[in-house]
UniProtKB/TrEMBL annotation:
The entry's keywords: DNA-binding, Repressor, Transcription, Transcription regulation
A UniProt-annotated Pfam family: TetR_N
Stated name of the protein: Transcriptional regulator, TetR family
PANTHER family in the cross-refs: HTH-TYPE TRANSCRIPTIONAL REGULATOR BETI (PTHR30055:SF234), HTH-TYPE TRANSCRIPTIONAL REGULATOR RUTR (PTHR30055)
Domain (HTH tetR-type) ranges: 1-54
Species whose genome carries this gene: Streptomyces mirabilis
Taxonomy, superkingdom: Bacteria
InterPro entries xref list: BetI_C (IPR039538), Homeodomain-like_sf (IPR009057), HTH-type_TetR-like_transc_reg (IPR050109), HTH_TetR (IPR001647), Tet_transcr_reg_TetR-rel_C_sf (IPR036271)
Residues annotated to bind DNA: 17-36
Record-linked PROSITE patterns: HTH_TETR_2
GO molecular function: DNA-binding transcription factor activity; transcription cis-regulatory region binding
Signal peptide annotation: none
Length: 179
């Protein structure tokens, strides 16, 4: 997976080849094809692995409202260090909107899992009086995903754009803090 991630990040999806990835991994092209039927399938697995690593780290780190903004800021900065992977993620998510796409099921499950987790946490915050009045947890969770994806897409178009400040302002709009 490391070989594929490096190749996609360095060369971009279109220029990365399964032969190059196999060579980097120290296996044959046929050996790679035994595990992954296509470059799309391999990319989906690379992104799923990255997503899983971030998910596990995020669940461990974000145990309070105060920890949320710093964690998300760190996550976006990390994504900015690998813009090609950020681009690939967004492109694959869009392509996977087609039901016949190999990564369709993964993205449906990934967004649902994320939305469920965020909604659950927002329900807890709502019970504590920390979710803005009139904004339900379900809607806030959907907005949350849209803002993260949208900020990253805008940053890919304009690398000078500050996406951390708008993220923090969005959190200010939906959450009530003690200060």
């Amino acid at each position: 997976m490391r070989a594929a991630r490096d190749s996609f990040a360095e060369r971009g999806y279109a220029r990365a080849s399964l032969r190059d990835i196999a060579e980097r991994a120290g296996i044959t092209h046929a050996g790679l094809l035994h595990h992954f039927r296509s470059k799309d399938e391999l990319l989906a697995e690379v992104l799923a692995q990255r997503d899983t690593e971030e998910w596990e780290e995020g669940v461990a780190e974000v145990d309070s409202l105060e920890a949320l903004a710093p964690y998300l800021g760190t996550l976006l900065v990390r994504h900015q260090k690998t813009p090609e992977l950020m681009r690939l993620w967004l492109e694959l998510a869009a392509a996977a909107s087609r039901p016949d796409h190999p990564a369709h099921g993964y993205f449906v499950e990934r967004y649902e899992r994320s939305r469920t987790h965020v909604t659950r946490r927002l329900r807890e915050l709502e019970a504590e009086g920390k979710l803005r009045e009139g904004l339900g947890p379900d809607s806030a969770a959907t907005l949350f995903q849209a803002v993260l994806n949208g900020l990253q897409a805008q940053w890919l178009l304009n690398r000078r754009l500050d996406i951390i400040e708008p993220l923090n302002r969005f959190l200010d709009l939906i959450l009530v803090t003690d200060d």
